[in-house]
Amino acid sequence: MTQGRLALLRELYQGDSHRAHRFRYWLLGFDVITIVFVVVTSFIDMNDIVQIVDLAFGAIILLDFLARLAIEPNRMKFLIRPVTIADIVSIASFLAPLADEGLGFLRVLRTLRFLHTYQLMKRLRADFPFFRQHQDVFVAAINLMVFIFVMTGLVYATQHGINPDIGNYADALYFTITALTTTGFGDITLTGPLGKTISVIVMIAGVTLFLRLAQVLFRPIKVRYTCPECALSLHDQDAVHCKHCGKTLRIETEGQT
Hints:
Blueprint: H1 3-14, H2 18-41, H3 48-71, H4 75-79, H5 82-99, H6 117-127, H7 129-133, H8 135-159, H9 169-180, H10 192-218, E1 222-224, E2 234-236
Helix pairs in contact: 1-2, 1-3, 2-6, 3-5, 6-8, 8-9, 8-10
């Protein structure tokens, strides 16, 4: 790849221009469309149209992956990142029908694209003061959402076809939500040792993430400012002195009361 093209890719993926911002928001919108496609196609049988759209999604994700790999200075570190692994799995899931129709079960694993939501949070924090002020709430909500959809995908991938209770993605999502909230209606249960293991993970990890979201929702709003004396990072919005060490603080505000 020529130096000119590498410079263009770096500007689009890492730059701070309006064009770069629009490009990255387009990529984030594409991730949302991908997940919507996952949910919708779980209700319909595989056909030629779905396969064509599959290949189109896979090609776009592959191009995005190759572009980011090309501009990455440490490619080995890049390849072991969770988001990168999610992309590799997504590419395999979209292109699976080209290799073998029997690999179609991989399609549901494209829900791992939800890991890209963390990139959305980074961009929103940089662009909008509202998200910077409430980032703990949004991060907790994103953590819970990503967990729900990844576990739903895992439930669907491991139970669809062998468990009559899991007929589509909505059934898997319904089970994940009821298990996470410990509602446990009992109308849908997972079969086999793997199913029971997944259920335990959903209940333990899911409840933890749910309680974390509730905690940040109902506690007083804090701002992030590192105290130069004791390094305490969270303070009241109108704090003048650090509660920990008493150091005078100079927290920047945007003039809001």
